Amino acid sequence: AGKVDQEASENTGPKVVYVPPPPPEEESSIFSHYATGINFDKYDDILVDVSGSNPPKAIMTFDEAGLCESLRKNVTKSGYVKPTPVQKHGIPIISAGRDLMACAQTGSGKTAAFLLPILQRLMADGVAASKFSEVQEPEAIIVAPTRELINQIYLEARKFAYGTCVRPVVVYGGINTGYTIREVLKGCNILCGTPGRLLDIIGRGKVGLSKLRYLVLDEADRMLDMGFEPDMRKLVGSPGMPSKEDRQTLMFSATYPEDIQRMAADFLKVDYIFLAVGVVGGACSDVEQTIIHVDQYSKRDQLLDLLRSTGNERTM
């Protein structure tokens, strides 16, 4: 009860027929709309806490990250100037094969922090180009709580993997199941998905886990808040899922309550690295928060005035 599942069920309601438009294929389109909005100058003074046995040394530039030429070019095209704190520490930790529990705010650059070392390792190990198969066996699975977030991660993965043989695929609710399955069966090295849809496609026998090397749980605290802990535990316990000793598990969370600590102990190797960037549970430093005192019956008028004053900018 109380589970907030944003994945439309196709078994309990009308058949979902929606098919999303295909993502852009042209280089200019892939890199034009998703350039980073990170304010790099604000990161120099952010506190970073790294704990665990023998954590790898942080990098200071992307040149120190050991990225292949294709990835390095894609980083530059994406507008990344220098690594953010979570990237400075997260990239070498993941590249060293260590499990990671990272507390970092949305907007800290954490998506690139896990995608870049995963892509680099897959390419360095000569991952086979994905191709059609009735059962796909991805090397990496990335889990996030909402379709909006997982689609954003997928677009980042496509951007960084541009010009390589690595094929990311995204699965989430509200989309025709047949379309989703066809997209997966075309080839899938990195599978991005929401918890319920991942369980569904694994349960249908379309995705095997025998080749899985990386499991990423992003915004783990939100997944718990939305009632996804049973799904997350079911995913980790799926038949064929490598044990935590035989896979690399990466968890990201904005907060670090007891239930996240317990999950980290259950899902991660005993020698995992803990990384905290900035104030755990704090707001992103790029977000300006303003409190406006208004009378109870003036709130609507005040809100409309604020919306009109923003011009044509995107507003939520």
UniProtKB/TrEMBL annotation:
Its EC number is 3.6.4.13. Residues 60-88 form the DEAD-box RNA helicase Q domain. Residues 1-25 are annotated as: Disordered. A motif (Q motif) lies at residues 60-88. Keywords: ATP-binding, Helicase, Hydrolase, Nucleotide-binding. It holds the Pfam family DEAD. It is an enzyme of class 3 (hydrolase). It catalyses: ATP + H2O = ADP + phosphate + H(+). SUPFAM superfamilies: P-loop containing nucleoside triphosphate hydrolases (SSF52540). One of its GO terms (molecular function) is hydrolase activity. It comes from the Eukaryota. Residues 91-274 form the Helicase ATP-binding domain. Belongs to the DEAD box helicase family. This is RNA helicase. It comes from Carassius auratus ssp. 'Pengze' (Pengze crucian carp).
